[in-house]
Amino acid sequence: MLVLVMVAAGMVCGPGAAFGQEELGRALARVGPLVGESTLYSRKGKEDIYDIARRYGVSASDLFNANEGELPLGDELLLIPMEHIAPVPWAEGVVVNLAERALYVYEQGRPVKRFPLAIGMVGWETPTGDFTIANMAKNPTWFPPSWAVEEEPVPPGPSNPLGDRWMGLSLRGYGIHATNAPWSVGRYLSHGCMRMYPEHAHELFEMVRVGTPVKIVYEQVVFGARPGEGIVYMARYPDGYRLGRVSAERVRAQLKEYGLDGVVDMAAVAGALELPRGLPTPIIGSATKVTVNGRRVKLALGPTRMGGDWLVPAGPLVEALGAEMEVGPRGSYVVITRGENRLFFSPGDADVLINGQLVRVGAAPQMAAGHPMIPLKATAMGLGASVGWDDWTDTVLVWDGWELGRLGRGAGVLGR
Hints:
By secondary structure, the chain is α+β, with helices and mostly antiparallel strands. It is built from nine helices and 30 strands.
């Protein structure tokens, strides 16, 4: 077997063999930031959806997608989607994701504000690319282009489709502006310009200047994480411009750029792809906690459920169990030793050598951003420890020689 050949050649302590998880931290920092927090709203009677959306600074389309299009009249509890994944991890100025129909303002590299948009209809698609704010005007006059029904310039006022704020792009004829049709925000209705709620256009007008960078992208799938949380989220937006279906394999390939393709929950990915609600969905990691002998194990990437086990970063678990770890060249294998107990893992292989016996484990070990991810239950039990579960606190309990009576409420034994 491959692992035996490698061990016979001698164990090599390669990069990432230390207990640190810096590689994982850097990988999570490279995905887009997760911002905001969603809330619930109790709709009263025939309260207008557009009024509710505008009050919370989202579009009616955002509401429809977040609630799966189920918005009958009458009393109901609505999810107000205010948690979002910014389309790029680091930027300056304005970033627009056309698939999301939203604009983000970045300051010092991070997003500080999000605004919903109306964008170009099919056949008049808003262009992607890198631009700048080229001109700005309050109470602009609209000069009808060739496609317009109007023949004469429209002065400032309620009939002006530009509203009372205009921010023109360096691409002639395109801009970001207020609108006299706020109900259109969130839709594909313009001839290429980007419309905003008037109050949002006022706010953005004060945040930008001539020369501010504007990046326009079309990303149907985005990934995000909150600092220190240890979870990677995915949001999927509808393909309004009909540029092509996103497959699960394409998502995995995108995650390979971060070194996270081996630990992704593909069932969660499939669910997000099937119903493009635009809501951040956990696809790697979780909020589940791990304790060893009652002490919390700090994990840069939370436990990820795979098959019949949890994959966790090897370093912290091994250290908490008082074991030693060595990693082969380029993560080719992992050796974990504690006393007479020895475990040999080959990433991607569910057949593991545990104390001289070949055992098929519930989740094959993987490499994530250069750090070994190992099956928690198989590792703990292979080192002579026991594993339990506490429903009350969503915690995996690992202990050495503890009596079952010390586990506490809601605890149950997973194995020994």
